[in-house]
């Protein structure tokens, strides 16, 4: 790279000097990107990340869908029992109900602050799926602070969720 001697700089055309002074250098662009990255990280770190209610409702609804599928594939009725502590899965085996402990089934506890709204005077709610795929219609509302999510199962065994904020 050759440098223009000082005596020749003054003789460069004005248009050429203006073209060289326009734009940003790579270092300037990198500094700006670095500052934007730091600012973005600060925003992400201070933003509330409490998706616990949505996560719990999604996991519960997914468990209901798996129970529905298991009832059909296993040709045995499956029941999901919900209490204020959590929920668990049982399978009908002849006249008895036996707990399902294998993955992805098994007992699950609600996260801190999550509470199900159980019917008045009852300490549990059950969702039951028969081997044909039909279900006993049931619903449950999960609550955290002022937010809530309704999880419903219709007679065809279809699981639906509706969030209320």
From TrEMBL:
<dbReference type="Pfam" id="PF12019">
    <property type="entry name" value="GspH"/>
</dbReference>
<dbReference type="InterPro" id="IPR012902">
    <property type="entry name" value="N_methyl_site"/>
</dbReference>
<dbReference type="InterPro" id="IPR002416">
    <property type="entry name" value="T2SS_protein-GspH"/>
</dbReference>
<dbReference type="Pfam" id="PF07963">
    <property type="entry name" value="N_methyl"/>
</dbReference>
<feature type="transmembrane region" description="Helical">
    <location>
        <begin position="26"/>
        <end position="47"/>
    </location>
</feature>
<keyword id="KW-0472">Membrane</keyword>
<keyword id="KW-0997">Cell inner membrane</keyword>
<dbReference type="InterPro" id="IPR045584">
    <property type="entry name" value="Pilin-like"/>
</dbReference>
<protein>
    <recommendedName>
        <fullName>Type II secretion system protein H</fullName>
    </recommendedName>
</protein>
<dbReference type="GO" id="GO:0015627">
    <property type="term" value="C:type II protein secretion system complex"/>
</dbReference>
<keyword id="KW-0488">Methylation</keyword>
<keyword id="KW-0812">Transmembrane</keyword>
<dbReference type="GO" id="GO:0015628">
    <property type="term" value="P:protein secretion by the type II secretion system"/>
</dbReference>
<keyword id="KW-1003">Cell membrane</keyword>
<keyword id="KW-1133">Transmembrane helix</keyword>
<comment type="similarity">
    <text>Belongs to the GSP H family.</text>
</comment>
<dbReference type="GO" id="GO:0005886">
    <property type="term" value="C:plasma membrane"/>
</dbReference>
<feature type="domain" description="General secretion pathway GspH">
    <location>
        <begin position="56"/>
        <end position="157"/>
    </location>
</feature>
<dbReference type="InterPro" id="IPR022346">
    <property type="entry name" value="T2SS_GspH"/>
</dbReference>
